[in-house]
Automatic annotation (TrEMBL):
It is a multi-pass membrane protein. Residues 207-229 are annotated as: Disordered. Keywords: Lysosome, Membrane, Transmembrane, Transmembrane helix, Transport. The chain crosses the membrane at residues 47-70, 77-97, 164-186, 260-281, 293-313, 325-345, 351-372, 384-408, 428-446. The keyword Membrane applies. This is Lysosomal dipeptide transporter MFSD1. PROSITE patterns: MFS (PS50850).
Amino acid sequence: MRRARPILPWVVWGVAAVSYAVAIVNRSSLAALGPAAQEHFGIDATTLATFPVIQLVVYAALQIPVGVLLDRIGSTGMILIGGVLMLGGQVIMATVNDVGFAILARVLVGAGDACTFISVMRILPEWFAVRQLPTLSQVTALIGQAGQLVSVTPLAFVVDAFGWASGFLGIAAAGLLLVILGVVVLRDRPGGGTMLERWTGRLGRTSREAESLGAASGTGGGGMPPPSTSMLAVVQAPRGGVAGFWQRTRRLLGMPGVRLAYWVHFSSPFAVNVFLLLWGTPFLTGGVGLSPAAASGLLSLTVVSSMVAGVFLGPLSSRFLERRVWIHVGITCAIALTWIAVLLWPGEPPLWLLILLLVVMPLGGPASMIAFEVSRSHTPRSFSGFGTGLVNTGGFTASLLVILLVGFALDLQGAGSPEHYSLGAFKWAFAVQIPFWLLGITMIVIEQRRTKRWMDDHGRTLR
Ligand SMILES: N[C@@H](Cc1c[nH]cn1)C(=O)NCC(=O)O
């Protein structure tokens, strides 16, 4: 008789993945509401543009502290803290008219968002077998991307039809629902209690029975081969406080595999992030001369391309484990070469080249998920939250720097405002990406060699 597959890992994963999607709804909740926000707060375009930058800075700056906390508190606690912070941020956003409070609201949303993704990544290896992780990570990211779709058209519709407060209170209500679900469903690992069970001190039957899940199923942690990371020697438990933090940082950065994961995350997603977060629409309309409708049609290609790539890249990177980094490098080179073709094209790039750019560039998002696979293979289990947070800063730091440098390069050419935009100025400005790709790919090649040598020296193989 066939043994029933346990459902609990999938329920835990489902709630965690939807929490990430809600974090993305929160993250991109202002994306389609620029004019409405300007009217509501009475602000100019420059002040409006600081909102995503502040949010990104908070997100990137909190990755390492959140990673350290994650190793102490666990995924459940961090996902719930993240949910409460975002919910608080959106209640403030819904109820104030003052721009200072709106910035505070975005800081809270950025902080809550920072807690979510790496905690969801951290919970996966506790519930699923190593071979399932690349696909599950990609599907989790794909569910997250769906959050972006919700926050664009439906949210704009609700704000238009029912007003500013209703739209943001609606997001807060969805967040509250997820926090309540999280309190009763999420468990850090098989055998661990839910937050509610921890508060009441009584472990329910589902949690107790889940302890044996690993051995009984193909999904649970206990039945899987130990992650390759568990073989890494942790000589002594790191101390707490600032000294402990530096000790951990030094130890982590001393591992070539962790550095490799950082550069993998650094190299591929910044081009699409920069395009979607700020400079894509100005480039397509003010530079290339497309209508806003044509530009937004082209931009929607990025979501489709990223989602389709996510479906294929997960199985591909687990099938070709030894070559996953080279798959990533191939995608990064394709992005760089397509951009360089656009930059070198004399005059206005043809539509087919722009379509190619908007299909190839978003592959960098799913490709960057390979960084978390590399990180999982090389980070000791007790540091895995810290490691994931550290790696996740790579792409976001690169994105922030490129966003600022593109603006700086436009200003230097006297083309920093919509009435002065020109295709030539945009081409020079987007060329600031080239050193970032060169740096990223060079560091990947160096660290890949060092990682291979390190693994040979320590007699380890990838599984
Ligand atoms: N590179 C993204 C994930 C991604 C996958 N597909 C498209 N994007 C990433 O690292 N995300 C972190 C986050 O907090 O969203």
